[in-house]
Amino acid sequence: MNTTHFEFGNKKTSTESIYNTVRKNSELKLGEGSRQAIEKCRHFLESEVKSGKTIYGINTGFGHLCDIRIGEDKLGQLQENLIRSHACGSGDWVPDEVSRTILLLKIKNLSLGYSGVRMELVDRLQTIYNSGVIPMIYEQGSLGASGDLAPLAHLSLLLLGEGKVKFRDEIMPTSRFLSLSGIAPLDLASKEGLALINGTQFSTGYGVQAVVKAGLLHRLANLCAVLSLEAFNCRIDPFSPLVHQIRPHKGQTVVSEEINQWISGSDLKDRKKISVQDPYSFRCIPQVHGAAYDLIQTVRNTIETEINSVSDNPLVFPDQGRIISAGNFHAEPIAFAMDHLALGLCELGSISERRIYQLINGHRGLPVCLTRDAGIQSGFMILQYSAAASVSLNKQLATPASVDSIISSMGQEDHVSMAANAATKTYRILQNTFTVLAMEFMTAVQALTLSETKGLSPQVTEIIHSYRKIVPQLETDRNLSEDVEKTKLFLKDLLERWADEF
Taking CA 134 as the corner, what is the angle to CA 178 and CA 24, rounded to the nearest 5 degrees? Predict the structure, then answer.
């Protein structure tokens, strides 16, 4: 484990700090004041239960069963039964980095001091997280309301010593992990099972990973665009500050400035041009990439609000002497955010594929299919097909999940957000877009190599030089899928270095 620490609790936290905490395996440390808030909340909850009041989810059944009163001697069993009965997810396993993010967000949510759980529960979750374990959570099962119930139930099985985890790169029963780690299972008390599975941490965990990676991909998209601009010998007039001063969308300005930084030191502006204008996929980079930038920032703001909020139910307010049953578990804000992020990622992939298409068409002095012996060699012909297939799949996945709803719990939960579906499909779109950008990177570098362009900026020259040590120029046809995977590994390393700058 890394010896760096991440302080959780009432301190406002950014998406980037959560992302880097998971990425660097930093240990969690409870922030000042959180312990007192958690214990105060729990003490008030216990006093209310002892007073004989009927409180939803604490001494009643759940959902449609909310009118059934539960005896005080069975409140712990009620909570453990809740976890077991709701652990009915299906599909693929959640990616490791998302699973760890979900666990971290659940700990942070409980530490804000409005859920009524015992300090012992938060301490146990902290110990589990700091062990480096990865809960095995199924991808499907949440409707995005009443909390991400099924996925969070699979997460919570860990406390009971049930379910599966990944530990030391091995998937194993949780009971074995607990034995290896010297951690005992925990008997749940009143409210704790409900607090564990209420909340939006599954959808928001995907959201944290997706929005931070989207920001990194946006920077990569600008780099790929620069390589394509150079290879296609484009005009740089569309990146003039004069253009963006009179249409001052922030993203448009930011992208234009970043493109100009990448080409600083290049002779692109001085090269003789063949065409009066460039295709939209080159000329409109500031407008398209810029709109995606603005969208990513909007989504980031939504996700940051959510990770610093309480999405439990019922909510405990000891200072006001109230326990309130409300709807903070409803994930509509996350559903909308993820659906919108999907659109931005789709557009980054779509315009990237169009630049690939332009580069292989034999225009502006570049050989058709970027091979010197077209006909006997197919070169990059089918790479464009592959990129187009990913882009089209993205379009199909981008259908909004948030407009859907379905009745559940015998009508008690009659409108749901589908945030989990929005989040998981957006994560697929993110991965597809990264693949398309890697293909553009490959294509543009091949085009630059064949055009023998020398006057690139020092920073671009250095990147290409490093890349060519891993993926050599395509001289004769070969299995390009292997080159794509090598390119993705190269670019992942570049994104890691950029993430270190947060």
Answer: 120
pTM (predicted TM-score): 0.95
Domains of the chain by start residue, with CATH: 5-198 (1.10.275.10), 207-499 (1.20.200.10)
Catalytic site residue from 19, 56, 206, 280:
56
Tell me the HSE value of 187 on the side-chain side, using a 13 A CA sphere: 4
**Residue 368 region by backbone torsions, left for phi larger than 0, else alpha for psi between -120 and 50, else beta:** beta
The predicted model gives 278-304 an average pLDDT of 98
pLDDT at residue 3 in the model: 56
The DSSP result for 201-222, as a single string, is HHHHHHHHHHHHHHHHHHHHHH
**Cα distances (angstroms) measured from residue 21 to each of 129, 219, 263, 335, 407:** 11, 21, 33, 24, 37
Within 8 A by CB and 6+ apart from 244, the residues are 252, 253, 256, 286
Give yes or no for a contact between 440 and 355, defined as CB atoms under 8 angstroms apart: yes
Q: pLDDT tens digits for 408-442?
A: 876 677 888 999 999 999 999 999 999 999 999 99
Smallest Cα–Cα separation from 342: which of 386, 418, 421, 400? 400
- What average pLDDT does this structure show over 136-160? 95
The H or E element that residue 431 is part of is helix 419-451
What would the DSSP string read from start to end of 267-330?
Answer: -GGGSPPS-SS--HHHHTHHHHHHHHHHHHHHHHHHHHHHHTS---SSEEETTTTEEE---TT-
Residue 327: is it exposed, middle or buried by C-beta count within 10 angstroms (0-12/13-18/19+)? exposed
pLDDT per residue over 74-95, tens digit each? 888 999 999 999 999 999 999 9
Kind and range of the H or E run holding 441: helix 419-451
* CA terminus-to-terminus distance, the chain: 21
CB 206 within 8 A of CB 142: no
Strands 138-140 and 90-93: antiparallel
> How distant, in Å, are the alpha carbons of 231, 392, 471, 480, 485 from that of 378?
20, 23, 18, 11, 20
pLDDT tens digits, one per residue of 13-72: 999 999 999 999 999 999 888 999 999 999 999 999 999 888 888 888 887 777 889 888
Q: How far apart are CA 359 and CA 374, in angstroms?
A: 14
Element containing residue 166 per DSSP (H, E): strand 164-167
**Annotation marks residue 280 as catalytic:** no
pLDDT tens figures, 116-134: 999 999 999 999 999 999 9
